[in-house]
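Page 47, continued from p. 46.
Same chain as before, 88 aa.
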Amino acid sequence: MSDFEQVIAECKQKLEYIANDNSVPRNIRRSANEVLETLSNGKEPLFLRTSSSISILEDISNDPNIPVHTRTLIWDVASQLETIPVDE
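Result:
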């Protein structure tokens, strides 16, 4: 389980960077904070937190106003979250 927690920690770090980057539109930063809260919610099963987070990330990655460097980070976070198996 520690491998998955390491993935979550890395993802949270990238999301915090996005959430605190003033060059990123406010709605994208708000969504990054939403994903952070979702991933931090220990009451939900891990697979549910990751699938909800991936869904939000896919939505915001399609925003036409998102800076290219932020879109790349979001794709990276989503890819990392997709490595967490659903049956955990």
